[in-house]
Amino acid sequence: MNGIEIRELEAFLVLARELHFGRAGERLYVSQSRVSQLLRSLEHRVGGRLVDRTSRRVRLTPLGERFLDELTPAYAALRASLDNARAAARGTSGTLRVGFQGTVDDHLADALACFAARCPDAAVELVEVPLSDPFGPLRRGELDAAVVLLPVREDDLALGPVFSREPQTLAVSARHPFASRAELSAEDLADAPLIGVCAPAPAYWRRAQAPERTPGGRPVPAGPEVNTLQEGLSLAAAGRGGMLLCRSTAAYHAGRRAVAFVPVAGLPDSALGLVRPRGPAAPLVERFARAVADSLP
């Protein structure tokens, strides 16, 4: 660009809008003579007059009109590129891909709202993570972070803030004997098949979602295994077994007339945690983790 300076272009653009050297200087916080100096330098680089100036008026020459038409979008694109680069350097722009299991409950919704307020230039893509593959999308690079059911014991994944600790609920057919109960004991799970989760979910994780024994040591009958929450609820409605859910997920699906949701006492609370690949976190992931932590009650 033959040494051209941004300040010269800015002076020309402001002068073209104001058509007055004094007002242009005020807009640029420089003197009127400095505006004239910048314009002369730009005209020297261009090789022609861009502005006609008389004692009564200032106007663009035909060359100046053409230069203004071509410069305006190019300058806007340059400014946008600079702003985007600054935002990226601060970690406040770009796209954050967040996975979730089951439903976007109030806790996650609050964290997303907090993140959006702090990083308004960032976009968030929400992707449902199958129950049967809680960690696969992270390992395949499909997600930047995921909100999944605990526990997490993967060496290559890091667990961030833990939230949504809630009592567990059993989803059963509305025709099941349990459906009329106000509450179940964990020992009652020995009296009905429990819907489990398919591989490739790790065995320890699958056992946590569908325990093989009650706290008292009684064996829990194994029901069918599913890939998704919707599959599990459909099988529960069909009377194929019961499925353990956290309270907020049960409340979200409470409108299903074919399914009853009965609280279960005596089981560890269900919990969700923010998981990401181990190692230095990307700026947006760090900011989202902070939003999750700050939105906790």
Automatic annotation (TrEMBL):
GO terms for cellular component: protein-DNA complex. PROSITE patterns: HTH_LYSR. It comes from the Bacteria. GO terms for molecular function: DNA binding; DNA-binding transcription factor activity. The keyword DNA-binding applies. Keywords: DNA-binding, Transcription, Transcription regulation. Gene3D superfamilies: Periplasmic binding protein-like II, Winged helix-like DNA-binding domain superfamily/Winged helix DNA-binding domain. The keyword Zinc does not apply. Residues 4-61 form the HTH lysR-type domain. Belongs to the LysR transcriptional regulatory family. PANTHER family: HCA OPERON TRANSCRIPTIONAL ACTIVATOR HCAR (PTHR30346:SF0), TRANSCRIPTIONAL DUAL REGULATOR HCAR-RELATED (PTHR30346). This is LysR family transcriptional regulator. It comes from Streptomyces marincola.
